[in-house]
Amino acid sequence: MRFVDSHTHIYLRSFQDIETMSAAGIEGVVVCSYFPVKPIGPSTLVDLHRWLTELEPERLKKCGISALVAVGIHPRSIPSTGVREVLDHISSLFDSGKALALGEVGLETASNEEEKVLLRQISLAKTYDLPMIFHTPRQNKAQIFDRLLKLIKGQKVDMTKVIIDHLTADLVARVRELNANAGITVQPGKMTEKDVVSIVASAGVEGVLINSDLSNQPSDPLTLPKVARALSEAGTSKADVEKVTYFNAKKILKF
Ligand SMILES: [Zn+2]
After folding, report:
1. How many CB atoms lie within 10 A of CB 227?
2. 52: CA distance to ligand 1 center in Å?
3. Per-residue model confidence as pLDDT tens digits over 102-114
4. How far is the CA of 213 from the centre of ligand 1 (A)?
5. DSSP-assigned letter for residue 221
6. CA–CA–CA angle 110, 191, 232 (5° rounding)
7. Is the entire prediction scored with pTM above 0.85?
8. Beta-bridge partners for 164
9. Domains of the chain by range and CATH?
10. For labelling alongside 57, which of 26, 34, 142, 207 has CA 20 to 30 A away?
11. Are 4 and 228 in contact (CB under 8 A)?
């Protein structure tokens, strides 16, 4: 089988992990921007985005994996100064086509600063008509999800280009009602393969994307093949398994 992992921070993982993913049938990964400490100034994220767009696709290509790079200011990575400079650089990466999506962006605590930075990014991605990958937090997920949805709806974005990620089972239906896409992160402490089986049974496979959110934290490079196996064992058709582990990501993100 073939797979696209629709949300990773693979630049925080080893070359060995990339080889493992390639051998398991992972054809493509979405590389999302995130920096694990709050940057002092704009150059941290400018250099991160240069790393993601200039070096990471080449590293992945060596193992036959194609990359789609998403850039943006994660709510936990908002620089203390120089947001404008980071946004200008993001804009230049959209102009050149080196980055083809906004992400990951969103809300962690829904502070005023987070909301302001998020709104500026949504309006930027809207002008380029690009897909947007939104983070939801572990803490107060339901409340912050509501706030996030309100902000996105207020910006009148094309919902078919929106992916709201790290969802719990109860939030998937709410995202699908709006015609937006539901990202499910399968990872220790988040969702399990069994959770995906029950989500697919209740919400179906349209607009549902599975990902590993691969990073330096506990996360599994083989998430996608393992989810596919669990779905197949539970009786899901091959076509449906491929939708949530491959085709939906390809279609929504224009891979
Ligand atoms: Zn992430």
Report:
1. 28
2. 14
3. 999 999 999 999 9
4. 5
5. T
6. 140
7. yes
8. 134, 182
9. 3-253 (3.20.20.140)
10. 207
11. no
